[in-house]
Amino acid sequence: MIPARGERHMGNKQTGLSLSGLLVTLAVAVVLGVFALKLIPSYIEYAKAKAAIVAIAGDRARSASVGEIRKAFDARAMIDDISAVKPSDLEVTKEGNDVVISFAYRKEIPIAGNVGLYVDFVGRSKQ
Question: What does pTM read for this prediction?
């Protein structure tokens, strides 16, 4: 239908993402991706270290000495490639009949140039 003289035709307004909006969205996604790629390996190593102390505490910690517990952790650390926590960093305590193994460390994660993050990790075999 052709509009009559003096009438305005109201067409459908187009919606979508502009080029500048797309570029900003991509820039934010790239920055978040860089952070994720830098942080994920540290969290994986922390999860391996925590799994190791939980397994050691559950296996034979009740009858083992502190030296044996540290030696068992050292063996697991070599297999699982855990370098952030050393056997000497482990604190071995007793709570009732249970042996509790814990560690704490700070990891510096370089992001770009002189910019980096510090992340504090704390692991405990019993929550």
Answer: 0.75
